[in-house]
């Protein structure tokens, strides 16, 4: 292992050839350009901005309207008109949510004004400073008021008109205001575009849902539900809405218990709150206040925005609006965002999409690209510690099922026995699912918040899928089919009420209730003789990725605290029916950007990228000319000559080090802490620049990023792995980053060599320390490099794994490759390595084969059956040195004789020789070489 003389002279820190000076000039050129570009961009940023014209102050007014069944009731509506600098401009009528006022929409109004719109915000009757009572978006009251507000807007000079008394206007609002927007569009043709946000389609189904159907639930859209009669009263949410009606205002003939609602609404609430059921009169009142009654006349361009975290108005409500408006001939675009009544309200990005919708369809403001009729939905990640939720937006060409396409669905088999469940007397105690409107708080609470969802023993039947073999995205309303039967001899009313829900269950058993939502099921006429009744179930609509290794759990409970429950005790048998599976909708979509990039920074980034590319090209040219390959060393994996690394004011970490590694060798790099081993490894991998000397790999002079490094695999210190990915995926992503074909990675061989075949598909976070170390070694072996450099490869490995690693390295070197190993385990180096390099204080102390290092002075040890006879026989060899006996061992100084000569003498004397080897172990030689034996 003597260093081979190198053809080129050593380059020191001060010498520079003309070629090197030219390379430095080329390197400096893009740096200068970068400085000039930075100065240009900076100077552009600090230019004083011209003061922009400010829009006029908002104008407030009280508008008199006449409403009621006969149009004779006078009410005053509190409004604020926000106008831009340039008027007249297209207008937006901006409605608020239930329990709010015009103050809640002021920020969105200012955003729309900045886009160039005139905006009218107002407080609906019964809210804020507006007079009158709440009629729950009645066409005779709230919708009639909104039509008269359009009349008022048409008279304002700030509003662009399409004709007499015809303002160019779009209507938007959230929740209560969103339903008003749809109903106004369906009753007033002057509305030119509409965008309802997280609103309902059928208020009766929203507050008294029934997601069970004894006929098959079909439909091609992703979130179609089961809008069946005789629903279960959503008492928690409805109670909150009723309390939001505010304190009662003095009105003749109205009970104080009615709050500020008109008598008809008060009577309807009193009925369902007391009895848990709605009469036909109440259902007719709710239908009259629902967009479903008017959607057949909505032909204006409609942007539907719905929240994915919403136990009040779920995705099925938006889906129904989309289907009805599309059937009427309206242009529909749908957005599901990561929020809702149980999460964050629409943020600036979502509000910006609403503004874009109106900018395109109303015109009169700075133009935007056609927003089209596609479908966008958000995939929310886990909440961060600061409360933020990372979101990825997906885009599909259209909302599936409105035209020709259908939503892809995947059937996941369920398993579970027929289970008896009971409804306790009075429906108490009851299971919990979610607190109305508290989804954001529960998310922030992490596992504590998730633990709120709890089913009670004896009240729930559970059915499970097998662990998923690949990630599955739920985007819409899952479906399943169940059967229910009475238990003969047990209490059993004619009707049954159940609650179905889906859990995401991890490998550790942690359960997450999808959407914090349940699907109430009301099944009528259950036979008392135990005959089963089969029915389809529309489960809560969600957007949720189920990770590999997780399973889906279907729970069917008899109680839920958010709903009114039967008071009578009962017992049922719940079982899977049909194909015994859950049908998962998964919309085909591609990831899209959530926002636009400003042109200025984009141009700047592009220029920086071009300059960086130029720098890379110049560096590649320099490497090509400075590589200077030596053909004599083309088959030598590694040659180090005069390698030195020093730091100002400190002793050299590596000082004039020279050695080489040949094919088929396993070379151990030894030395005490601080000897310079890791520094040497980092320099030979191009991670550190030497102060002097050079490294050649297969004859090529090494520089940072040199192409020849593709023939080297390395493990220096512990690499980082992504814990949520499997070991196999980590290796694939690492190899893909090299830009080389995946077939050249030799993944199967590497996993077999490292012993990770059976655990390659497990997530890295489940790996032990030893498995992570083997994965790191497997990463170094990707592509089966010709030179393998390992720094402490046995860290974290147990003895069997160390033995296996020893065999791996031997087999690896036997193929003609070379291995350089740095290790503190001298016994393992002695058994594994063919050659050894010993360093101390940055310098070479010794090098050679393991046998040469351990056999200093020619001392050998013989294990024999007769030590006395063996000693006498050895002393007969001419010139032999000292012979000593130790138990069954005989130590002899061969003084230049070969061990084979001594063995022949022993055998000729009738002595049985069991073992022959150097007298000293590698550890003894190492300690002597580094001067530790005298301490």
From TrEMBL:
Keyword Cytoplasm: no
SMART domains in UniProt: AAA, PepX_C
Domain of life: Bacteria
Transmembrane region(s): 24-42, 599-618
Stored SUPFAM superfamilies: alpha/beta-Hydrolases, Galactose-binding domain-like, P-loop containing nucleoside triphosphate hydrolases
GO molecular function terms listed in the Swiss-Prot or TrEMBL record: hydrolase activity
Record bears the keyword Plastid: no
Pfam families named in the record: ABC_tran (PF00005), Peptidase_S15 (PF02129), PepX_C (PF08530)
Family affiliation: Belongs to the ABC transporter superfamily.
Protein name in UniProt: Alpha/beta fold hydrolase
């Amino acid at each position: 292992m003597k260093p081979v003389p190198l053809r080129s002279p050593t380059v020191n820190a001060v010498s520079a050839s003309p070629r090197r000076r030219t390379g430095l000039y080329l390197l400096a050129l893009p740096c200068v350009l970068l400085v000039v570009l930075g100065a240009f961009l900076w100077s552009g940023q600090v230019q004083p901005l011209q003061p922009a014209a400010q829009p006029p102050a908002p104008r407030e007014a009280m508008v008199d309207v006449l409403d009621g069944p006969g149009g004779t009731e006078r009410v005053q509506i509190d409004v604020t008109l926000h106008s831009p600098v340039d008027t007249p401009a297209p207008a937006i009528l901006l409605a608020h949510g239930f329990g709010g006022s015009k103050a809640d929409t002021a920020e969105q109004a200012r955003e729309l004004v900045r886009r160039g719109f005139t905006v009218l915000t107002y407080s609906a009757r019964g809210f804020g400073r507006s007079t009158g009572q709440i009629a729950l978006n009645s066409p005779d009251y709230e919708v009639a008021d909104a039509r008269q507000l359009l009349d008022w807007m048409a008279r304002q000079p700030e509003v662009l008109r399409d004709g007499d008394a015809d303002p160019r206007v779009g209507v938007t609002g959230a929740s209560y205001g969103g339903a008003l927007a749809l109903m106004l569009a369906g009753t007033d043709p002057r509305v030119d575009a509409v965008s309802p946000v997280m609103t309902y389609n059928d208020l009766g189904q929203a507050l008294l849902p029934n997601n069970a159907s004894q006929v098959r639930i079909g439909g091609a859209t992703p979130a179609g539900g089961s809008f069946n009669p005789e629903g279960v009263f959503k008492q928690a949410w409805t109670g909150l809405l009723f309390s939001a009606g505010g304190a009662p205002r003095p009105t003749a003939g109205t009970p104080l218990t009615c709050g500020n609602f008109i008598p008809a609404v008060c009577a309807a609430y009193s009925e369902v709150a007391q009895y848990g059921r709605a009469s036909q009169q109440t259902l007719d009142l709710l239908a009259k206040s629902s967009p479903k009654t008017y959607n057949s006349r909505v032909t204006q361009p409609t942007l539907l925005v719905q929240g994915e975290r919403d136990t009040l108005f779920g995705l099925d409500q938006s889906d129904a609006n989309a289907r009805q408006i599309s059937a009427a001939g309206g242009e529909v675009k749908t957005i599901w965002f990561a929020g809702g009544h149980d999460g964050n309200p629409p943020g600036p990005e979502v509000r910006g999409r609403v503004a874009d919708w109106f900018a395109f369809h109303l015109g009169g403001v700075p133009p935007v690209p056609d927003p089209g009729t596609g479908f966008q939905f958000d995939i929310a990640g886990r909440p961060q510690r600061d409360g933020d939720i990372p979101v990825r937006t997906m885009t599909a060409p259209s909302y599936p099922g409105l035209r020709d396409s259908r939503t892809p669905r995947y059937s996941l088999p369920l398993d579970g026995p027929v289970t008896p469940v009971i409804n306790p007397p009075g429906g108490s105690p009851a299971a919990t699912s979610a607190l109305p409107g508290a989804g954001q708080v529960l998310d922030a609470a992490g596992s504590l918040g998730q633990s709120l969802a709890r089913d009670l023993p004896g009240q729930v039947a559970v059915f499970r899928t097998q662990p998923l073999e690949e990630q599955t995205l739920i985007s819409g309303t899952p479906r399943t089919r169940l059967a229910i039967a009475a238990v003969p001899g047990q209490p059993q009313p004619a009707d049954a009420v159940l609650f179905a829900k889906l859990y995401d269950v991890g490998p550790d058993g942690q359960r997450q209730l999808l959407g914090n939502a349940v699907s109430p099921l009301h099944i009528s006429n259950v036979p008392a003789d135990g005959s089963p009744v089969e029915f389809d179930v529309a489960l809560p609509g969600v957007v949720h990725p189920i990770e590999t290794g997780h399973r889906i759990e279907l729970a069917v409970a008899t109680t839920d605290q958010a709903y009114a429950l039967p008071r009578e005790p009962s017992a049922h048998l719940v079982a899977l029916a049909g194909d015994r599976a859950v049908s998962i909708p998964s919309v085909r979509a591609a990831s899209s950007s959530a926002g636009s990039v400003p042109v200025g920074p984009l141009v700047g980034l592009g220029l920086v990228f071009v300059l960086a590319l130029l720098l890379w090209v110049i560096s590649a040219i320099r490497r090509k000319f400075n590589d200077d390959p030596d053909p004599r060393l083309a088959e030598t994996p590694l040659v180090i000559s005069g390698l030195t690394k020093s730091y100002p004011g400190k002793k050299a970490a590596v000082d004039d080090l020279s050695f080489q590694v040949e094919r088929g060798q396993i070379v151990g790099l030894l030395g005490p802490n601080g000897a310079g081993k890791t520094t040497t490894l980092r320099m030979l991998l191009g991670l550190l620049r030497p102060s002097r000397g050079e490294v050649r790999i297969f004859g090529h002079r090494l520089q940072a990023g040199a192409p020849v490094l593709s023939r080297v695999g390395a493990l220096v210190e512990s690499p980082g792995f992504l814990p949520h990915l499997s070991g196999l995926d980590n290796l694939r992503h690492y190899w893909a980053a090299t830009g080389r074909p995946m077939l050249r990675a030799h993944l199967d061989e590497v996993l077999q060599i490292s012993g990770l075949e059976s655990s390659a598909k497990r997530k890295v976070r489940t790996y032990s320390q030893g498995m992570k170390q083997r994965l790191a070694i497997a990463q170094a072996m990707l592509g089966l490099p010709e030179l393998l450099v390992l720094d402490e490869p046995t860290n974290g490995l147990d003895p069997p794994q160390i033995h296996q690693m020893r065999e791996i390295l031997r087999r690896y070197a036997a193929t003609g490759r070379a291995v350089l190993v740095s290790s503190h385990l001298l016994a393992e180096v002695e058994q594994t390595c063919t050659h050894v390099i010993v360093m101390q204080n940055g310098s070479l102390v010794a090098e050679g084969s393991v046998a040469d290092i351990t056999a200093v002075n020619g001392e050998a040890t013989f294990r024999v059956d007769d030590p006395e006879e063996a000693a006498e026989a050895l002393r007969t060899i001419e010139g032999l040195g000292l012979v000593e006996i130790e138990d069954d061992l005989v130590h002899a100084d061969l003084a230049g004789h070969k061990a084979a000569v001594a063995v022949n003498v022993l055998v000729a004397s009738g002595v049985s020789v069991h073992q022959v080897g150097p007298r000293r172990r590698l550890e003894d030689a190492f300690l002597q070489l580094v001067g530790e034996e005298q301490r």
